[in-house]
Amino acid sequence: MDEFTRECLAIDVGRKLNSEDVLERLADLFIRRGTPTYLRSDNGAEFTAKAVREWLSQLGVKTLYIEPGSPWENGYVESFNGKLRDELLDREIFYTLHEAQVLIERGRQHYNRFRPHSALGYRPPAPEAIEIAPPGISSLPLAGAQALT
After folding, report:
1. How far is CA 139 from CA 9, 132, 134, 136, in A?
2. Residue 131 has pLDDT above 80, yes or no
């Protein structure tokens, strides 16, 4: 989750995800979006693994771990997780892992491109078409991924 744009950058779906999966996803995101200043995460084993900490340190990415039992320290992700659960996960029965991957990716795309966000003036975080400002009005610069959660 990009804390600035509120865009959900990726959701990996698997029976089990480990630190290697985290490194693979982060490397992909860093190549596509640039290296963030910091990465906020919970204290799960896959994020606190020595390999992940060392890799982030080599890239100069600071880590901000939330305190155990303090979900408000990661409010954007907690809000997204609640919406994902309410609007998708609680409404679907996934019969295969592939079905879950496809439907969850479709839900992520909907969240980013179509679902209005009150904090963003009821606009989606990553619409497919950028609104062109009328003459005489400067448009907002595009924001890069400054923080990943």
Report:
1. 23, 7, 9, 9
2. no
